[in-house]
Write a structure and sequence with these properties.
mainly alpha
Length: 67
């Protein structure tokens, strides 16, 4: 019975330690997700800018080369 109580106490301490670390881990995950979202937005914005320049260049060439 004493061994079982010791195991229970050990597991309880492990659980409490994990519960204490959980808010920090959740915050770290949220920070990483936010950074990833911002990086994705920057990449999409840059991609749109590149396509806008390409479309603009094609329009200028078409305008100059049309009969």
């Amino acid at each position: 019975m004493a061994t079982w109580l010791e195991q229970l106490n050990t597991e309880t301490q492990k659980r409490q330690k994990c519960e204490q670390q959980l808010p920090g881990l959740v915050a770290a995950v949220h920070t990483a997700q936010e950074q990833q979202r911002q990086s994705r937005q920057k990449l999409l914005r840059r991609n749109l800018e590149v396509w806008a320049w390409r479309i603009g260049a094609v329009a200028v060439l078409w305008w100059r080369l049309k009969p």
